[in-house]
Amino acid sequence: MRFAIAVLMLLLLSGCAAPKTDDYIRHIQSTSASQQWVSPLPVYLAAAQIELRGEYDSNNATEQLNVLYAGDAGIVGFMAQVAAHAALSNNAQNSRLSEQQLQANKVLEPLAEQLHQLHTVQLTYQTPELSWLAQADPKALYMVSKPIFFLSQDARVLSLKHIVQLEPAAAVVAGKKATALYSNLIEVVAQPLTAERSIEYWQADQGAALIGTMQAMYQQSMALALADVKGQLKQDTQAETFRLAIADKLRIERGNRISASCKQLVFRNLRGWILAMPAQSGHCEPFDVSVNADTTPAASHRDPEKT
Questions:
Q1: Region 150-170: what's the mean pLDDT?
Q2: What does the pLDDT read at residue 110?
Q3: What is the pTM of this model?
Q4: Mean pLDDT of the chain
Q5: 264-269 and 158-168 strand pairing
Q6: Are strands 41-45 and 130-132 parallel, antiparallel or unpaired?
Q7: Where are the domains of the chain?
Q8: Confidence of residue 169 (pLDDT cuts 50, 70, 90)
Q9: For residue 58, is it left (φ>0), alpha (ψ between -120 and 50) or beta?
Q10: Are 158 and 217 contacting, i.e. CB atoms less than 8 angstroms apart?
Q11: Angle at CA 118, nearest 5°, toward 217 and 54?
């Protein structure tokens, strides 16, 4: 009995050993989601204020605690030590992630005035497929929308991680957890700025370019999510390795291509997430902030290498 309890405790605590991040979600695709679809679909915005964070690499932000276990504690004692280590490691990693995020957010300090004026209602747009802040039939579905924007440390790259969930409307309104019929993360990365004075660009005209780019990115992410829910996204059956040079960083992803143009590459990665990335070929002109350039989230690209 003591052994069974120790095993259960170990499983419960060690299962929480990964640091908590709120820009991650498991992909769920239920066939009943498209069958229960009713247009216009009510959208619940998870926050009133637009959330913009400084970007940092969370993969390099955590360290493991080195712990020596007592060998004379018996199997139950040993498992209790492992479980305690998992809990301590979890707390340490979460603390480290919080510190890293606070440091990364310093890039946003020059944009404090602009950020204060950004509200999620500004992301909404007119479409017959969606209704915003509408009353929903308790038997219908509700789209929960949680957009999180990120700005790179050189302020050149604006990106969006949009978590969407399709849940029963009654559960959302009541604030209860429900099993989602659909959940996914849609990531959109805007075309990197080429000029050095990137912060000044985002500050100009009371943040007009900032909110304009956010609106375009959000609208595209929502369109991709809706198409995915309906099963309308067609993708290549052959997986590819995508090598994405975004500003001065190289990002490697593996997945299935959905669409590609001289400005943007859209694909589904191995987690099931949908990514819309600046394309890589160089056929299009770079996004130069020194001129009145288009603020839609796109860039020049190079065809990804098939493997």
A1: 92
A2: 96
A3: 0.75
A4: 79
A5: unpaired
A6: parallel
A7: 22-55+108-278
A8: confident
A9: alpha
A10: yes
A11: 70
**Tokens 């956010």 belong to which residue?**
214
161 CB-contact burial (10 Å; exposed 0-12 / middle 13-18 / buried 19+)? buried
Q: Which of 217, 128, 143, 153 is nearest to 178 (CA)?
A: 143
Cα first-last separation, the chain: 52
Question: For 53, phi and psi rounded to 5 degrees?
Answer: -125, 155
Give residue-wise pLDDT tens across range 214-272: 999 999 999 999 999 999 999 999 999 999 989 888 999 999 999 999 899 999 999 99
Map 111-137 to HEC letters: HHHHHHCCEHHHHCCCCCCEEECCCCC
At 283, list the tokens: 């056929």
CA dist 77 → 10, 70, 139 (Å): 11, 8, 50
Say how far apart CA 257 and CA 275 lie, in whole Å: 10
Q: What is the per-residue pLDDT across 76-127, written as a single tens digit (0 to 9) for each?
A: 555 555 554 445 445 655 566 688 989 999 999 999 999 999 999 999 999 9
